[in-house]
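Hi everyone,

Forwarding the result from last night's run.
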Amino acid sequence: MNHLVNITRKELKELLTPGSVLSIVIVVVLMMAIGTMVSAQTDDAKNPSAIGILNGDVDGDSGTYDQYSIECIYHYYETIYDLTQEEAEQYIIMMESEYGDDNAIISEMQSKGLTSALIIEPDYSENISNHIQATIYEYYIFENQGMMSSVTSSIADLLIVYVSNSISTNLLTELTGDSDYAIFLENPVVNTNCDSSSSISYTYINGKLHSGVTPFEISTSMMSQNLMIPIVIMIVIVMIGSIVISSMGNEKENKTLETLLTLPVKRTTIVGGKLLASAIAGLIFGLAYLVGMMFYMSGLTSSVGGKDLSEYGLSLNVGDWIVIMVMIFLAIFCALGICMILGAFVKNYKAAQTMTLPISVLAMIPMFVMMFSSWESLPTVLQVAIFAIPFSHPMMVMDNLMFGNYTIVIGGLIYLVIFTIITIALTVKIYKSDILLTGLSQTKFAKMFSKKKKSG
């Protein structure tokens, strides 16, 4: 046991160097900073933005449809953003440019700090009164604000839709003389899009029927974890795999591996110490990345909205998180076993770099699949293929625990344990042989193949 502890401690010192730890800390801090920044931008985007209004009918009376439309815009700001009329006036800026003079309109928008404006045509009220479709033009000044650049245009579109619906209801009321009947004519069939207060959507989740929720809202709420877990697992496996293979290449190149193998220590202990230390380092890196990704994805998806998953029985308890950590730990063990087997056949550090490709591909395949699909929705052939890749299981364990797919979880745990045992056994066998030091060229199989080739 003392030998195992000493080897594990030695490997951890080599893996958890100040440089590697500092790089992880920097990446996590950057992720958290980006997530906080994006979240702040999203919160700002939810606040009311200023919009310019230019009424082309300068001689219009207060009772005409152009004035009614402007009142609707005020009402929208007061209702949606919970503002008083005085507060709404700070965001609704009346413009004085001449209708049709584009340069003057843009110049006034720039002078007043506006990025969007609605221009009402001069014949607006007359056209509506004569049952002719009227036009409200949209003017924008593009400012590159990343993914928030489209916010101003979406608000302008919503305002036009709101004005159009309000005028439609008003016209129907005039025709029928009944406002309730007018509302009915405008929306004869009610759904959640028209009336969000009506809980008329039902979704069956985990054996229970829930009202007021749709699969889209559930999927939106789960978007963060569906993207986060696969990415973190892939990063950790590729990073740790590269470190382990490169470390073995360095040990061979510097002849330190030969010294280690001559010590009076069982090869099983050497393999176990190396794997245990690398797995602990991988778990530490994984948890660090997980925290960073949680901040990053939380900021990235905060504008999308969603539901509280715990209300629908889609939450995780302490036991579930323990299962997730165990599965991540075992997956790292499996990756390290594969890496040590591959690393046994490299001669130096340079050759080790080429051996990281297989482990990277095996980690990326389930990552992309799990980000855009689920194991249950895959064809049987792909299900078998994904199940066979050990890194797939920690990527999909969270969803399986939430939806009660315990058979897949238990099957995955058993598979990971078996895979780990097999890879450790193969690694120990390689460490007990001469392949580790002499390479493949000195094995019996290689010699027989070489003799046959010469005789031929």
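Residues 13 and 277 are 9 Å apart (CA to CA).

Cheers,
N.
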